[in-house]
DNA sequence: GATTTAAGGTACTCAACGTACCCTAATCGG
DNA sequence: CCGATTAGGGTACGTTGAGTACCTTAAATC
């Protein structure tokens, strides 16, 4: 067997030691994998370092502490694109969005996110970083789009297009998780949120001041 | 100064070593104080033991791990009695209850509770223990009472008395904390929750199916 | 090719959880 | 009233994991 990798034609050198961006991506990838496999509690710095085939130095040169790495790794694994459903009915659209959020949050990724939010505590920088990708403005935008369409169809009054209304179903879903813990919220709870709260509220704002 | 405690009349002995209930209460008290002073992260087992003038053995004989002690200590310090406001107006009642919850949650105790809920993770026993005293059924009962009174005054339709409606304002308040972190929610957010969501929903359920 | 930059390797400090062991005070049974 | 049992006190560990220090060595840059 000829020794490979060193003697290339024309003397092209293949670096054997990653640097900069390449190394950073490898670390993030390793951290994300650890997060999915063992949760945030299991994502130790040594394990990440070993998995990325590097050492803790390289990590601490980039992130000041574990929570920061955790947040960055979550972001790396949560390329959240939210496809806004368009079924032609406000109720079905709302249910579809809720079900999608429920599926995401009850997946391992959801558990990781909740761990991270807990661990981050009150560090506003990391809090923002997490929320951004997690469910923040993108989610609100989706619900506003959904309401806009309903108004255009004459299904909802214009007063219903309001940030508080838009964020309501997700807030209630989040609340279910806060109360019950990890297991996925049953579908009956989702329909209840839509039928008993969301739609009545949309109606209720019609004749309001 | 005469040496006290040992030589009592009639040979009554005052035990110098606490046992059972007395010691348990002392530990809980010490843990609760640590929680308030330094949060859950600062409530180390050694500190609690020192503060209670005992040692870790006595603690671990009673609680299997730190999280269990934390939950028990929180319960010890959170004798939650919820006085249901009765101002004669649904809006004012609702605002009063919300403001009270906001005050509690933005106090050190609220931060401790959030830390604990995070630390407890998915242990259902501790989760239940915490929620019980924290904001669970007592809170819901208060909101249902408030709705009942409004219905009696003719201020709200009977259909508004529904668990989902009752838990809504607290769910939205909790959501504010989840989104923004520790600082108290501004009063404008509370009035918005009441005026833009809660009251319209109560109205909206009136003519509903 | 020399110099500077950053990765690799490793050992270490420190804090904190949880455990083991042994001694001694309090309680309980007779 | 006196031994036996129970449970608290004291203390020293073992272990894990965060974060740091320091030196060596490869890669990039001048």
Automatic annotation (TrEMBL), chains A, B:
Alphabetic keyword roster: DNA-binding, Transcription, Transcription regulation
Limits of the HTH tetR-type domain: 21-81
InterPro entries: Homeodomain-like_sf, HTH-type_TetR-like_transc_reg, HTH_TetR, Tet_transcr_reg_TetR-rel_C_sf, TetR_C
DNA-binding region: 44-63
One Pfam match: TetR_N
Transcription is among the record's keywords: yes
Presence of keyword Calcium: no
Entry superkingdom: Bacteria
PANTHER family xref list: HTH-TYPE TRANSCRIPTIONAL REGULATOR RUTR (PTHR30055), TETR-FAMILY TRANSCRIPTIONAL REGULATOR (PTHR30055:SF148)
Protein name: TetR/AcrR family transcriptional regulator
Native organism: Actinocorallia libanotica
């Amino acid at each position: 067997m000829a020794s490979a990798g060193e003697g290339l034609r024309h003397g092209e050198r293949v670096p054997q030691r990653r640097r900069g961006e390449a190394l950073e991506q490898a670390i993030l990838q390793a951290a994300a994998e650890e997060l999915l496999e063992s949760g945030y509690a299991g994502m130790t710095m040594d394990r990440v370092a070993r998995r990325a085939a590097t050492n803790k130095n390289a990590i601490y040169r980039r992130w000041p502490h574990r929570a920061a790495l955790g947040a960055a790794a979550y972001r790396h694994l949560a390329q959240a694109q939210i496809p806004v459903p368009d079924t032609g009915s406000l109720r079905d659209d709302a249910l579809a969005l809720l079900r999608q959020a429920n599926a995401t949050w009850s997946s391992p990724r959801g558990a990781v996110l909740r761990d991270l939010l807990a661990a981050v505590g009150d560090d506003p920088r990391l809090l923002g970083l997490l929320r951004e990708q997690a469910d923040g403005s993108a989610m609100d935008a989706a619900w506003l789009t959904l309401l806009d369409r309903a108004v255009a169809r004459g299904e909802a009054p214009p007063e219903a297009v309001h940030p508080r209304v838009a964020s309501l179903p997700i807030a209630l879903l989040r609340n279910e998780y806060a109360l019950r813990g990890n297991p996925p919220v049953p579908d009956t709870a989702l329909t209840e949120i839509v039928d008993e709260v969301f739609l009545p509220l949309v109606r209720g704002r019609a004749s309001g001041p």
